[in-house]
Amino acid sequence: MKQISIVLVTMLMATIGCTQSQQRNKRPKLPSAEQIEKMVDELAEQFELTTKQKQNVSSIFNTHFEEVKGMKQMNRENMESIKEGFLDQLTAEIGEDKKEDIKTFMDSKKPDKKNGERPPGREK
């Protein structure tokens, strides 16, 4: 009986370890078209964008997420490079003086990895 318990505990631990490893290596879920539109609307409201700026920002968002979606292999270095280019484009459109505010806004849209919650505006 004791040997069966040890085998079962070992199998359980192995299963948990594999599951956690798979979850860490999973690509982040990209926002849907509706979620992107909602983020653009919130950004436009927060930064008081003109209609033209809002259209340009929407185009920047859609191009960015299409680029990320098209990547077959995503590593941290590639993602950081793409993210910086994305932030540079947004800053060029909205204004250099608002760069830190844009970063803060975008960081607020990241999902909480610890408990799997999605940020406001990114509900399922």
What this model shows, in words?
It contains 5 helices and no strands. It is mostly helical and 124 residues long. It has a domain at 30-107. The chain is elongated. The model has no long low-confidence stretch (mean pLDDT 78).
Query: Secondary-structure element sequence?
Result: HHHHH
How many helical stretches? 5
> Uncertain segments of ≥5 residues (pLDDT<50)?
none
The protein's oligomeric status is single chain
The end-to-end span amounts to 46 Å
Shape: elongated
Q: Structural class from helices and strands?
A: mainly alpha
* Spatial extent as radius of gyration: 20 Å
* Average predicted confidence as pLDDT: 78
Strand content: under 5%
State the total count of DSSP E strands.
Answer: 0
State the helicity in percent bands. 55-70%
Summarize the biggest pleated sheet. none
Secondary-structure blueprint:
Layout: H1 2-24, H2 33-46, H3 51-70, H4 76-94, H5 99-107
Helix pairs in contact: 2-3, 3-4
Identify the notable features of this structure and list them briefly.
single chain; 124 residues; mainly alpha; elongated
Quick overview:
By secondary structure, the chain is mainly alpha-helical.
